[in-house]
Structure formats: C-alpha cells, structure tokens
Amino acid sequence: MNILFVCSANISRSFLAKVLFEDEMRRRGKNTVSAASAGLHAYPGAPPDPKMTAFLIAKGVPWEPHRARRISREDMEKADLILVMEGVQERLLKECFPEAEIKIMRLGRFISPDGREDDIIDPFGKSTYHYRLAQSQITLAVKNLCEELASGRLPHPDAHNKNHSG
Fold it and tell me: Which CATH number fits the domain 2-160, given the four candidates 3.40.50.2300, 3.40.640.10, 3.90.550.10, 2.60.120.10?
C-alpha cells in the first residue's frame, strides 16, 4: 500500500505526517506500507520547517533528508490513499484528479473516534501554540491511522465523507 500525505508547502504538516507515519510503522514491524509527501503549492527544494524538525528531535524520531516537492499526476496515480490536511485541499485535488476521488480524504478523520472530517491546522508563520496544536493533531491522527492499518481495517475514503458534493 502506498500512502501520500499532502499539505500546502510540503515543509510542515505533510512532512511531519510522513515522518511520524514511517516511524510508527517501523516500530510496529510493518514494512509493507510506503509513504510519501508533497505540497499543492510547494517551493521545490525548500527545507522542512525548523519548528517541525525540532519537534522530531525532541521526540527522538529519525528522518531522512527532506526537500519540498509539488504533487504530480504520478503521485496521484501511485498512491492507494491520499491524506490531505484541509477540506480546501481535498476539494481541489478531487476537482483536478476526479479519477482519484475515491482515494482522497482528510488525515483529520483519524483524530476523533466518530470519524469527523477535521482539518489539521496550518501553523506556518503562526505562534508556538499553533505549532503544538498541529503537532498534536498530526501525532494523534497518524497513531490512529496506524492502528487501523495494523488491525487490517483499511480506511475507506467514502466511509466518513458526509460532505461529498459529487
């Protein structure tokens, strides 16, 4: 299974989600799932947000060198599950890639037990509070996503897509 994490710039949220996902799956001994990240409006080659790398260092989570990249048609075709951070990103990808609509959902769906489609806050350029909130949201969502994958319950994008507008 191939999972693609998508945000705006691919330096904060999708970067962090991918790294935490890989770490969690590695700790669980699951190496059959691969992850990638990309941004809708990424500046190619930009380094990750220092506040996100500091968070990873503080948590002792290793990561490979990262440079931001823009999402491509190939990314969309290769991914089995595409997890975005916000509803606006979900709508945009579904408009641009209607053939991939069934694979696109918000990562925030994994935050609450009722599967609500929550947005992951964009902390870029905001306060420490906003970074901590985004880090907490992503950490919890990734943990719950990994639980579902480990238990064999693969998430289905339409299972909780109550706001689908066709």
Answer: 3.40.50.2300
